[in-house]
Amino acid sequence: MNRGLRDFHGGIHPPENKDLSTQVAIETAPIPDKLVLPLQQHVGQQSKALVSEGDYVLKGQLIAAAEGYVSTALHAPTSGVIASIQNASIPHPSGLSGSCIIIESDRKDEWGKRLQPLDYEKVDVSELLKRIREAGIAGLGGAGFPTSVKLNPSAENTIVTLIINAAECEPYITADDMLMRERSEQVIKGIQIIAHMLKPVGCLPVECLIGIEDNKPEAAETLEQTVKQLHLEHEISVVRIPTKYPSGGEKQLIQILTGKEVPNGGIPADVGIVCQNLGTAVAVYKAVALGEPLISRITTLTGRALEHPKNLEVLIGTPIRSLLNHCGLQQIKLNRLIIGGPMMGVTINDLDTPIIKSTNCVLASTSEELPNPTPQQACIRCGMCAEACPASLLPQQLYWYSKTKDFDKALNHNLLDCIECGACTYVCPSHIPLVQYYRFAKGEIRAQEHDHTKSEHAKQRFEARQHRLAEEAAQKEAKRRERSKAAKLRQQKATIPPHNSESESNSEDKAAVIQAALERVKSKKDKTSKLTPEVSNGSAAREEE
Amino acid sequence: MNLLSVSSPHLTRTGGTGDVMLLVILATLPGLTALTYFFGWGNLINVVWATTIAVASEALILKLRGRSLGFYLRDYSAVVTGVLLGLALPPFAPWWLTLVAVSFAIIIAKHLYGGLGNNLFNPAMIGYALVLIAFPVEMTSWIAPRSLASATGEIAPFVDTLNVIFPFHSTTTFDAMTMATPLDAFKHKGDLTAEQVWAAEAVLSAKSWMAWQFVSLGYLIGGAYLLYRKVFTWHAPISMLLTLALISAAFWLYAPNSFASPQLHLLGGATMLAAFFIITDPVTSATSVKGKLIYGGLIGLLIFMIRTWGNYPDAVAFSVLLMNFAAPFIDIYSQPRTYGHKIHK
Amino acid sequence: MSIVSAILVLLLLAMVFGAVLGFAAIRFRVAEDPIVDQIDNILPQTQCGQCGYPGCRPYAEAIANGDAINKCPPGGESTIQELADLLGREVIPLDAEQGIEEGKTVAYIREAECIGCTKCIQACPVDAILGAAKLMHTIIIDECTGCDLCVDPCPVDCIEMVPLRKTAKNWYWQHPEIEVELNRKELITSDKIAGEADRENAA
After folding, report:
1. Which fold does the domain C103-165 belong to in CATH?
2. Domain boundaries in chain C?
């Protein structure tokens, strides 16, 4: 189908190196002895572990539940014993560890009770959403956003277009490519389910576009054939887009396919679009049609430090070491180990880091392949970065502001619209680690914001405490006076015994006089005491001025 | 396990700032060849001399600032400054004039502002403007082009030229025929009409005028090459040339006898050198596309105004420096629209 | 005569302009937070008293009345910068008398040693300590501002300030030049790599 494609600003053409890992078919990785399952594999709140040390779990059994709306469930990828729940390496650039469930597999790979397969056309959409949530599906492409949240757009946004992101624009990565070549039927059926879920009741079905870079002709053809076989030509179109990094960025892909821009600070649903990763569609298919939770994924193992780079179907939680060994790692050549692609991936230092739901690639590179960073030269403001920036930012200015910590100006130049794609750093002739500058500035800005809300909170608590202390003091004071008054009265009653009616009336008069005087004093005291404890509170003191 | 931990991206294009600078130097060759062919060895000697001073000054300052010589000299930015000044100064400029211009450019205009990337003004133009103001006589006497230099049409011999520039051990005064540049000639035409000037001034005779046009053409070719290699974008040079051409054409059509023709404006002075080698200096110019258009256009306008109504026959240095001032301001108001934003602030 | 008319004209002009200015001052007045509130918003609200005032607000008032802006160690450099921007004053380094800027800390009670005296609870300015008499106390980390006012009152010294742990969630990339900044401020990353190597070779 020929569509009027738009272009996005900037972009680069780095060497692709994709044929490295497309030579052989997808293989199933062997079950490792030990699986490490981080409780935080997605955007949002950490999952809550439901098992404890020593429990025996079956394959597909729920081991951690979603905590809150934006969160996902976690399942045992194979059968075995929970060895421990402890901190272990997670795929994060900091090298910090996170809380993980560690399973020792018993190699039986015994399935537990599976979920009931659903016929998506017969059940309610809410049922499907529930299933996707139960199956623990989070975006398989990048950040790992819980899919059930994305597929449940708010009522005011009418979804007209579903975009399946199969651009796979990062060099080296071929996981989606191979998935399309080999499992196109699952892909298309998954897309059908997602499209069905987004269709508003009684409305026309959403337009469904699969965006795929034209460097994957084989995959695109396979998909087209499958679409034809399933007679879905009118619902799903495979769109070939020009190869250019980062065409697979969600915002960029939307721009290419529809010409629409996601408004600043908004989400695609604001312009009637939902964007899903291809792998996610397959996971949805498996969850709905087969009743299988997300416990495995296709991951590309590539790089020139591997003898046999290829795509593997791996269990979530498999330590990378076993996969690298499976692909023939040449330890001596390994210089940089990257989770993800060479443009946006994160380096890790621990081979025991596990594969998580969003790990699409493990790149074991040599120092010839990805040379060590060269020293940074001065920025000459050549503007090549601005030409390459897909968000139409001015990276050279942002660099300057980030470097000098002038965060107000950086925000003014829309630093937060930077998608950290790395195109600017790629083209920079002075080898400036621009993206790191932006990441630093963004982190600092967020930290400052966090500090500010925290200090605001502390202030409120401090003032509340001051207020409470003042009130307590006032109450104490009042009680003390009450007591002393009562004591005085008792004393009076004791010293003036009743003689006769005359003196009685006299004494009553006297008592009334004393009472009135006391009350005058009290009211006077009340006024002053109300003020005194609050003087220590600044605001009250200031109001006095 | 000691693996590299760095921020993405892990892939970068090869080639650095030094390569960009080398390309610029390469692109000056057609212009330099034309200059040497028509005006003798003077500019070639100047270029070599200026480059030597530039590199020496740079090295001196780097040493004083305690920085790595090898690393910083390899960005070749000092060489570019030296080459550009060597091209811009008159062929017979004495050695001390070049020394003053180049060392001032490198030491004051570049390094006192913080070095490459931090200088507000184009160093070459600062150096040029300094000597233009301080030594107006030396700066306005150009050598006569080949066809006028001698009866035989030969250019001055290399050794003689060297002796003029470095008059140390030789007392033989080489009697080179100096004369004004075409723009200079036109500037001082007095009450003559344009036609009379063209007839009266030797420098504007067909053969001599051709020399100037060829030099400009040389710069144009070099500029086109740099554009092709994507060293800079077309916006600033084209905007400048177009503005200058349009505005001079308008005035020339209105009063052909009092105003210089667009041809003279575009090819008669340092216009082409400025358009492709001076205003494209990224450090001191505006950065966004819109900003570059404004920046280039205003330089074209200023060149015309200063040439026509100012005291100096050529105006490139002053126009560029004035717009260097304005570049940060232009940048503020010419931010491109960011993805997803409706209209920029 | 002319002098009189000149004076009259000037007087008239002065009155007209005065009226215009007066009108503009009222009509176009920008409603702004009082300066003390603005300063108070910048201060970190730890209420720690390290500045010598009994809380952040009193210090804000003192600054508004001309006190130095460099007496707040918890806020550190960034707070001084912000205050300088707001008040149009010079940025000055932190006054060492008040303490030095340290990483963020939170109080931690070694619970086995706690005797339940409630003294720390009384000292905490933001009610971040939970507990009751003769019962073990504990800190609510999210509420603790790290002011360390609870450390001194503890009779058994069971409270210590511990640095806030970096987690994958609050971690972010540091400034690419940070290591170099520690060594020599003026140089950029490349200097360290290239320059240092040169120096070492020379040595």
Report:
1. Alpha-Beta Plaits (3.30.70)
2. 35-98, 103-165, 168-196
- C contact chains, 3+ CB pairs < 8 A: A, B
Read off the pLDDT band of B194 (50, 70, 90): confident
All residues of chain A having their beta carbon less than 8 Å from the beta carbon of residue B110 are none
Per CATH, the number for C35-98 is: 1.10.15.40
- Comparing CA positions, the residue from A464, A541, A531 lying closest to residue C36 is A541
Residue A212 in this model has a pLDDT that exceeds 90: yes
The separation between the first and the last C-alpha atoms of chain B, rounded to the nearest angstrom, is 49
Q: Where are any strands of DSSP class E within C34-189?
A: 105-109, 129-130, 138-139, 159-163
Least confident of B187-201, B299-313, C29-43: B187-201
- Chain A residues with CB under 8 Å of C189 CB are 375-376
C181-201: average pLDDT: 40
Provide the pLDDT for residue C192.
38
In a domain, B90, yes or no: yes
Give CA–CA dist A398/B336, Å, rounded: 13
d(CA B186, CA B267): 13
Confidence at residue B151, expressed as pLDDT on a 0 to 100 scale: 52
Confidence of residue C200 (pLDDT cuts 50, 70, 90): very low
Domains, chain A = 27-339 (3.40.50.11540), 381-537 (no CATH)
Query: CB contact, 8 Å: B48 with chain C?
Result: no
Q: Is the pLDDT of residue A217 over 60?
A: yes
Say if residue B176's pLDDT is above 90.
no
Domain that holds residue B43: 15-179
Residue C182 pLDDT level (bands cut at 50, 70, 90) = very low
pLDDT tens digits for range A86-142: 999 888 888 888 899 999 999 888 898 888 888 888 888 888 999 999 899 998 877
CB contact under 8 A, B71 and C194: yes
Chain C 33-72, residues with CB within 8 Å of chain A CB atoms? 36, 40-41, 43-47, 54-58, 61
Tell me if chain A has a CB within 8 Å of the CB of C185. Answer: no
User: Mean pLDDT over residues A520-545, rounded?
Assistant: 48
Question: What secondary structure letter does DSSP report for B144?
Answer: P
Residue B31 belongs to some domain of the structure: yes
Whether residue B57 lies inside any domain: the answer is: yes
Distance from CA of B192 to the nearest CA of A (A): 46
Joined together, the tokens standing for residue A35 give 């699986």
Q: Which residues, other chains included, contact C42 with Cβ-Cβ below 8 Å and sequence gap of 6+? A: C75, C79, C82, C83, C86
Interface of B with A in 195-254 (CB under 8 A): 231-233
* Residue of chain A with shortest Cα separation from C141: A454
C45, C127, C190 member nearest A377 (Cβ): C190
The C-alpha atoms of residue B315 and residue B303 are separated, in whole angstroms, by: 5
